[in-house]
Design goal:
- With about 350 residues, the chain is an all-alpha fold.
- It is about 75% helix and about 0% strand.
- The N and C termini lie far apart (about 120 Å).
Length: about 350
């Protein structure tokens, strides 16, 4: 009984001593104890710092949550017109407490503290790194590697070493393969989620961006698809393939001018690109520029003179341009096996005499 009273008294004394100190001193003491592997002492110091900051931290998180629900106008008229400013100092005690608990072998409790530190400061590289370490230790390697990758990008040297040692970049292939399977079964939302995971693990590869963009095109999320193509193009700006795919996304979004620009860059680099001429012709039609469309379909015919689709498309463009040569194109298209052109070819009469 006497021992119990003595222990209670010592804890009360320790708490009173902590509160008698100012916050920076408590945190500094905790960091010193962490460096000396005095995890028990560090845990007590950081716990005291968390208690001292509790009211301020709660108000800060409430403000952050409120800011997150505001629209653009509300944000510009709030007391934070330049954006929410993260308070790193409020996150430090949670990180320190988590590190102390990690040293004491209390992984789940440590993970909760690292989560709280990151909630307070989403760019806290040290906390993100240690959360990654904790997740990998629990067997959640994919999310752990994502944290190491993010911390690495934010400049954490420990994360850089651990990311490479845990073969995290190779894990992106697993998600790519899973995404491919879902894409093949037309589960585009599920595939996009897997490609997102692959990007988070290895954002230097264009593969994830291109595949996720394709999903977004099928999901009719064209803005997101174009953003992904832009990111891929930033990684590898010398490829016409990305330009062509982005052009398709612009066309699907009915942004024919930008589609025309992308297809033009493709044909400038590759003058015998049949698909690019066909797609640029379609973009021209979208802008009601039928003469330019006719030119592009003619170029497509030059490249593939036995392609009935190109004749059929040129016939339609000529028809819209009130050009009587449309009938000739429809008849050639029929002879090359394009059934859709048959009714148009059959409806063609004798062309009116040319005006002298």
């Amino acid at each position: 009984m006497k021992l119990k009273k003595l222990l209670s008294a010592s804890l009360i004394f320790a708490a009173c001593t902590a509160f008698a100190q100012d916050l920076p001193t408590i945190i500094k003491n905790g960091q010193t104890k962490l460096a000396a592997s005095d995890f028990q002492g560090a845990e007590q110091d950081f716990a005291a710092a968390i208690r001292l900051n509790d009211g301020v931290t709660t108000a800060y998180l409430d403000k952050m949550k409120k800011y997150g629900t505001m629209n653009e106008f509300q944000r510009t008229t709030s007391d934070m017109p330049d954006g929410f400013i993260y308070n790193h100092d409020l996150a430090v005690p949670y990180y320190g407490h988590g590190a102390a608990l990690q040293g004491l072998g209390k992984q789940d409790d440590a993970l909760a503290d690292f989560e709280k530190a990151i909630t307070i400061d989403p760019k806290y590289a040290d906390a993100i790194c240690e959360r990654g370490v904790a997740l990998i230790a629990k067997g959640v390697k994919d999310k752990g590697c994502m944290d190491l990758r993010k911390a690495k990008v934010l400049g954490n040297e420990k994360a850089k070493t651990l990311y490479d040692n845990n073969a995290c970049s190779g894990m992106s292939t697993t998600f790519i393969n899973s995404g491919d399977s879902k894409f093949a079964s037309k589960d585009y939302a599920g595939a996009a989620a897997d490609y997102t995971a692959a990007i988070q693990l290895n954002s230097d590869s264009i593969d994830g961006y291109l595949k996720r963009a394709q999903c977004n095109v099928f999901l009719k999320k064209y803005d997101k698809a174009i953003t992904d193509y832009n990111k891929a193009f930033k990684i590898k700006p010398d490829t016409v393939h990305i330009l062509y795919l982005r052009g398709l996304a612009y066309s699907a979004a009915a942004n024919y001018k930008l589609a025309f620009d992308d297809f033009s860059k493709v044909v400038h680099t590759d003058p015998n690109n049949y698909d690019a001429f066909m797609q640029r012709g379609a973009a021209c039609e979208g802008m009601d520029n039928f003469k330019s469309a006719t030119y592009d379909y003619s170029e497509a015919i030059r490249i593939k003179p036995k392609d009935g689709i190109a004749y059929y498309k040129r016939g339609l463009a000529n028809q819209d341009a009130k050009d009587n040569s449309a009938c000739k194109d429809f008849k050639i298209a029929v002879s090359l096996g394009i059934d859709d052109a048959k009714i148009l070819a059959d409806g063609c009469g004798v062309p009116p005499p040319e005006k002298k």
